[in-house]
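Example (one chain per record):
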Amino acid sequence: MNANLHRSWTQDEFFSWAEKQDLRYEFDGVQPVAMTGGTMGHGHVTRNLHGTLLAGLGDGPYKYYGSEADDVATIGKTVRYPNAAVTCSEQKHTSRLVAGPVVVFEVVTSNSLRMDHVVKVREYAAVPSIRRYVMIESTSSPHPLTKAADGRRCFPIARNLHLPSRIAHR
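Predicted structure:
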């Protein structure tokens, strides 16, 4: 008899478990998945991204999230932990998820290429509020790339990341 010995977790079960862990995990809709370890280059690019977003967004309607507990729900029950997310939606201080993300940033390493270039492109494209999925390739290219959430457009981003003052809604 073939019986499924492992049942799927719920998001609440995942969050309850994840907050007790020392490492960061994402949730693939079934079970926790350990995030790959970052490199010094990944950390440098992520810090620069956070500084650029913090300074560039100022006191306008858009807010960036990129510290602890800034998860983004994608399709189904999946929960991702991008390096940064931008939203102009009101956020509940008790929520574990960023509400209404419009831009999601991932700093890509060689360990995360398939996940970031294939799986997350599909997942972020399925979220109605996300207008842009930005992948910053810190290790493979001297010119980081950005890819639209629909996965079709790919172009270099400038050394200094400039966000539009207004992100058009679909």
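Caption: The chain is about 25% helix and 20% strand.
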